[in-house]
């Protein structure tokens, strides 16, 4: 049922097929998608960059009915991802991802797990991070880009 | 990426929606070219990713921008990486843009961080003042790490501490941003500051 109602940004009925121009204007089109809205614009603080986003089964079920960036966001969230990772992976501005993720969450397509601000003071979490980091070996080899 | 069969209408087999890990983050700050991204890459389990935030919508009203109309699509790049501590806990490392005028990005990224590491190049000490000031004013646990380019630093640590005017309780270490173990140890110093502060708060 969550899939029944296209969001206000839905690319629209006038464009039945993908009609995206080849040379995208990354700075402008995303903000058209959000209807000019920006994260944190009056509706509470923006989602923290590490906020975890994961597709709901209804979101995955509705994939075919979603267009463009909304589709990509839900598809990329099959595994839990942070807002920052999604922005990097989809080459979208952080704030566009924030706005779209909140829309998709409202529509029931994504679950958005906003981290608890108290975590920074949580001794057991800090200890776990410390222990986990200590377990990192001195050298891990292959991941680094040279230069 | 993970190959998932493309869903078909109606009947698609989706695994149960995964429970995401608890995300925590550390911030790596400092001037341009000081080794932030190198440090992130040395400890991250993925190659550092870059995301961009537009400066226009966040910095609207900032005077400098009003008379530079060409800046309307300016973006700032932010590199980050991550480290899975265990399936329920994931550490993110964000390298913050260094310049003062991008101060707005810092609140955005630093909000909720466990702590910060300010990387210093002793040849350009003043590049890191903004970061040191920021963490001090926000009262966020942090440490200063002098990046030993070519294995050497050009000042001794007492001189660096004096020049940066950081108080005695802020740890100051020398590290090598290219070395995993060295970055790990520098981040551990930050986390120890955060831990002892949290323990102090809990006890008080």
From TrEMBL, chain A:
Q: Where is this region: Disordered?
A: 1-27
Tell me which Pfam families the record gives: DUF742
Output the InterPro entries linked to this UniProt entry.
DUF742 (IPR007995)
Per the record, the domain of life is: Bacteria
- Its recorded name reads Multi-component regulatory system-4
From TrEMBL, chain B:
Bilayer-crossing regions = none
InterPro entries for the chain: Gliding_Motility_GTPase (IPR052705), Gpn (IPR004130), P-loop_NTPase (IPR027417)
GO: which molecular function terms? ATP binding; GTP binding; hydrolase activity
Name the source's superkingdom.
Bacteria
Keywords, in A-Z order: ATP-binding, GTP-binding, Hydrolase, Nucleotide-binding
- SUPFAM superfamilies assigned: P-loop containing nucleoside triphosphate hydrolases
CDD domains in the cross-refs = Ras_like_GTPase
Q: Tell me yes or no: is Disulfide bond among this UniProt entry's keywords.
A: no
Write one Pfam family the protein is assigned to: ATP_bind_1
Q: Which PANTHER family match?
A: ATP/GTP-BINDING PROTEIN-RELATED, GLIDING MOTILITY PROTEIN MGLA
Which family is this sequence assigned to? Belongs to the GPN-loop GTPase family.
Q: What is this protein called?
A: ATP-binding protein
Q: Which taxonomic lineage is given here?
A: Bacteria, Bacillati, Actinomycetota, Actinomycetes, Kitasatosporales
